[in-house]
Amino acid sequence: MDDLKAKYLGQIADAGEENALEAIRVAAVGKKGEVALKMRELGKMTPEERQVAGPALNALKDEINSALSAKKAALVDAALDERLRNEWLDVTLPTRARRQGSIHPVSQATEELTAIFAELGFSVAEGPRIETDWHNFDALNIPSHHPARAEMDTFYMHRAEGDNRPPHVLRTHTSPVQIRSMEKQGAPIRIICPGGVYRADYDQTHTPMFHQVEGLAIDKDISMANLKWVLEEFVKAFFEVDDVELRFRASHFPFTEPSAEVDIRCSWDNGQLKIGEGDDWMEILGSGMVHPKVIAAGGIDPDVYQGFAFGIGIDRLAMLKYGIPDLRAFFDSDLRWLRHYGFAALDMPNLHGGLSR
Ligand code: DAH
User: Fold this and answer.
1) What pTM value is reported for the model?
2) What is the whole-number distance in angstroms between the Cα of residue 310 and the centre of ligand 1?
């Protein structure tokens, strides 16, 4: 037994890694290890011999096990020390002068408009990008065979074969968040919902994924005049000018009645986009008084409550404000473009400090 003890404690002391320790454990105190074999011999001994050998074998087993765990802990500590010696970082080094990352114009514009609408009393609501057919269409008074569905160039999600439920869609606008917010919060409600939306469309001013911000204000006494005021205040604050020329055009949306589209005066000279001057108009938003059916779909009584809604293209706002002519470049991840049009990461837009510096 002394030989066994000397042999295994020696091996354990010499072991340089955890795998070696495991091999020693199996050979010494494993089910078929040397100590177990010795224990089997107890049966052949006289009771007197057994009384001495039994406890001694158990003590040996315990001793080997403790030596194994102590050595294992020592190996783990040594490995950690080794890593700490090799992986160090001098946190007192100065930061690099060149900006490493920057804020994308869409994120910047989103922060800016969130700050403006917060000041006007609107809070931020969100909804899923993979939306039910009902929230994206039906609840917004766009039934199955309505032509607006075809006009939207919708991306449909896959359904398993034999599953005849209407497929989910990549939301084609942020308007379904109106429904989800009314369902959740009831009335009165004053929210904006910024986020990504999807349509199969691609040219200088259209990309398959783009961004909108939805606005919704429902209460007992809200009128079209409130809508016009809010939009004018917003546009002036966003473009940081005292006056912008807006054109309210009578229009049609299934979810509003009456409806208006709003254009902003701009020019496109030599690929340079400027707002507030020139003979062109760029459509930036759709709006109107929320259709009673939509209010009812949100679980609110349209005989008591009414209000306005609007949907603004965030990317287009950013293009106009920052003179970016091609929308497609927004999503190319071209570092030169991002460095040129990006914003410093630590400048948070707010109305007092300035939206964009
Ligand atoms: N959902 C419309 C679209 O994507 C935009 C829109 C128009 C939103 C009128 C509204 C609204 O809330 O009232 O084209």
Assistant:
1) 0.71
2) 6
